[in-house]
């Protein structure tokens, strides 16, 4: 994916898009995951 973006739009755009997808993935995981360690 990054290679196709870099070829079509340039390396800075590819880096920005991949960084955005990584950030979005982290936001989704932070919203979906829950703590499994019981409260003490």
The assembly state of the depicted protein chains is single chain
Helices and strands, in N-to-C order? HH
Low-confidence blocks of residues: none
> What is the rounded distance between the termini?
45 Å
Taking Cα atoms only, what radius of gyration do you get, to the nearest Å? 16 Å
Explain this structure to me?
With 40 residues, the chain is an all-alpha fold. It has 2 helices and no strands. The protein has helices at 2-9, 11-32. The longest helix has 22 residues, at 11-32. The relative contact order is 0.12. The model has no long low-confidence stretch (mean pLDDT 89).
Which descriptors apply to this entry?
40 residues, mainly alpha, 2 helices, 0% strand, rod-shaped
């Amino acid at each position: 994916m990054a290679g196709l973006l870099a070829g079509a739009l340039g390396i800075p755009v590819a880096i920005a898009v991949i960084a955005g997808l990584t950030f979005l993935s982290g936001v989704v995981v932070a919203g979906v995951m829950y703590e499994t360690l019981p409260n003490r």
